[in-house]
Amino acid sequence: MKRLVQFAGVLCAGLLWTGVKCPAEIVFETTSPYHHIRVLDEQGIRTLSFDGSAETRMSVRNPLQGHFEYTEYFHMPWLWNTQLTNALMIGLGGASTQRAYQHYYPDLSIETAELDPVVVRVAKDYFRFQESATQRVQVSDGRVFLRRGGGPYGVIILDAYEKNRYGSFIPYHLATREFFELANQRLTTNGVLAYNVIGTLQGWRADILGSIYKTMKEVFPQVYLFPAQETLNVVVVGVKSSEKLTSVALQQRANALVLSKRIKLPSFRARLVSMRTEPPLNFQRCQVLTDDYAPVDGLLTRGR
Q: Residue 26 is part of which domain span?
């Protein structure tokens, strides 16, 4: 039976959402071994909720619209690997990135590792996710999937979150130096890692972002930041090349990719403007996260 609920002012895996409270209609609800899952419709926008957080948004009328802005920064790896042929995505949710990649890069082979089989079913039933010859999903923990082999991948995209009493957080084992070393081994020579962090450059959850940045910098020679403009997200991009490219050089690459029609995402060049080449201001005092020491809970309580 469908019900109406209040769905606003919640901490989202995509952002901190503080809009006007409006009734949202629950179109699906269940509890899996990992989440209390709801699918909600409100004013033409469908939202996937895990445990009260908003994981994915999608326009019911046009599935390529209505998504959270930060997911568009997952297209930035093309700037460092202009001949991508395959991708691994860790975390499915409502499949915003998978749908976009399938639409804009139909020849790209995409694998997804998703821990929760119920999420896979919900993505297919309610968020227009379809498996195909070039779009496959495996029910698996992302790190286990990498450890078992596969690849090498031109890009690995990570957007996986859990929730505890402090809010949504990155699973510990996907935030350590050892994890990034494993991911690096599964990338091609010019491969790229793109990682969604809920936080800000300064203030709220800045220590989480600083620690992720510092940990990635232990493994990847160059790390770039793409803070979202509309949400409290920063997509952190690690590249295997030691060459530090300037904003001008990357803009030239972006122009060439768009002109050649290799990239058709309408906002591609505009998103590049957000890039930051310098480390977060708190970089020096942040700690490297390891399998033996990854105090994510403690970091979540800072700057709240």
A: 3-59
